[in-house]
């Protein structure tokens, strides 16, 4: 137990908050059981890349139009590095500053899941892009594909705010209100903008192909990644809720303004990606529809954070509404060998997608 927390247990001492500096090690008495429940649910939610069958996708790829092949190429190029960026921030920022052993259990599990996602996307690239030069270009997408580079730079800027990049001072401990606000913005960025918008946008293209009976292997793996990412986002929002309860003064009009501006920037970055993928438009998929969808998702994220909606948009994709229903009703109803590890105990997963 840290000195700060040990002192906090003395009569009359202030109880340490979640973002107070230190390294709490004691799981009993458990201060944040919700985080522990998230960890236990994540353990039940286990899958391996070897369970994903991509054989039928190879035949489907040959049927795609040039525009659809371009979309798939860009999509797998984004996937190639997206989860690695998330994993780096998880280790460098979240694990370091969230002072709860229950939360660190979950974050350790999340890091494992990010590694599985990276393995899945590596397998996907090896299958979809047999040409060595094409694969090399995909892995270097953050450098040579402008629409992907812009999204990566957006991520790096929010990482730099805590890690001392781009002229910012490195923050080793969250001692001041300013430091904690920077951490909150980093956490919200990765939950609402990256996992909750960039990846949701990418998943939309996958489910568009699936709605047309194509690329079932990609859709299967994406289903499982989708569930993981949704749980990552829910955990992050739980952390935000906890900080709001412990330190409500951090959640003022200025934070709302900064978060809204952040989501504006994220929507625009993802819209640039949509323009790259969709070109002049494909049957049932175009930039205008993606813009409406991205704005609807951004509104959901703002509302979940307790801020007003920005756009008043609605989801234009019926196949995504079906996906939401399927994910909510079937999350823990799949056969054990397909996704969920057979375990005892009750499970609750009611978060809105």
UniProtKB/TrEMBL annotation:
InterPro entries: Ferritin-like_SF (IPR009078), RNR-like (IPR012348), RNR_small (IPR033909), RNR_small_fam (IPR000358). Its cofactor is Fe cation. It is an enzyme of class 1 (oxidoreductase). The chain crosses the membrane at residues 183-208. It catalyses: a 2'-deoxyribonucleoside 5'-diphosphate + [thioredoxin]-disulfide + H2O = a ribonucleoside 5'-diphosphate + [thioredoxin]-dithiol. Its EC number is 1.17.4.1. It comes from the Bacteria. Keywords: Deoxyribonucleotide synthesis, Iron, Membrane, Metal-binding, Oxidoreductase, Transmembrane, Transmembrane helix. Binds 2 iron ions per subunit. Tetramer of two alpha and two beta subunits. Provides the precursors necessary for DNA synthesis. Catalyzes the biosynthesis of deoxyribonucleotides from the corresponding ribonucleotides. PANTHER family: RIBONUCLEOSIDE-DIPHOSPHATE REDUCTASE SMALL CHAIN, RIBONUCLEOSIDE-DIPHOSPHATE REDUCTASE SUBUNIT M2. Belongs to the ribonucleoside diphosphate reductase small chain family. This is Ribonucleoside-diphosphate reductase subunit beta. It comes from Streptomyces daqingensis. The lineage of its organism: Bacteria, Bacillati, Actinomycetota, Actinomycetes, Kitasatosporales. The gene is nrdB.
């Amino acid at each position: 137990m840290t000195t700060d927390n040990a002192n906090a247990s003395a009569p009359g001492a202030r109880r340490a908050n979640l973002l107070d500096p230190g390294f709490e090690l004691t799981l009993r008495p458990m201060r944040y059981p919700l985080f522990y429940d998230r960890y236990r649910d994540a353990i039940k939610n286990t899958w391996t890349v070897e369970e994903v069958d991509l054989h039928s996708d190879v035949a489907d790829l040959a049927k795609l139009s040039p525009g659809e092949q371009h979309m798939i190429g860009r999509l797998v190029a984004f996937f190639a590095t997206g989860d690695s960026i998330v994993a780096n921030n998880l280790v460098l920022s979240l694990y370091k500053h969230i002072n709860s052993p229950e939360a660190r259990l979950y974050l350790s599990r999340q890091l494992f899941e990010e590694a599985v996602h990276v393995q899945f996307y590596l397998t996907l690239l090896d299958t979809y892009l047999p040409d060595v030069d094409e694969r090399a270009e995909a892995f270097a997408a953050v450098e040579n594909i402008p629409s992907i580079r812009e999204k990566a730079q957006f991520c790096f800027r929010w990482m730099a705010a805590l890690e001392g990049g781009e002229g910012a001072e490195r923050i080793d401990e969250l001692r001041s209100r300013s430091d904690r606000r920077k951490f909150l913005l980093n956490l919200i960025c990765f939950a609402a903008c990256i996992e909750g918008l960039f990846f949701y946008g990418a998943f939309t293209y996958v489910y568009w192909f699936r709605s047309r009976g194509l690329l079932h292997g990609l859709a299967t793996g994406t289903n499982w990644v989708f569930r993981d990412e949704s749980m990552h986002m829910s955990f992050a929002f739980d952390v935000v809720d906890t900080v709001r309860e412990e330190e409500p003064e951090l959640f003022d009009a200025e934070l709302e303004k900064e978060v809204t501006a952040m989501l504006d920037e994220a929507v625009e970055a993802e819209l640039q990606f949509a323009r790259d993928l969709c070109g002049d438009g494909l049957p049932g998929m175009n930039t205008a529809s993606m813009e409406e969808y991205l704005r609807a998702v951004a509104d959901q994220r703002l509302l979940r954070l307790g801020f007003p909606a920005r756009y008043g948009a609605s989801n234009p994709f019926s196949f995504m509404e079906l996906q939401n229903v399927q994910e909510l009703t079937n999350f823990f109803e799949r056969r054990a060998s397909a996704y969920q590890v057979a375990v005892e105990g009750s499970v609750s997963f009611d978060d809105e997608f």
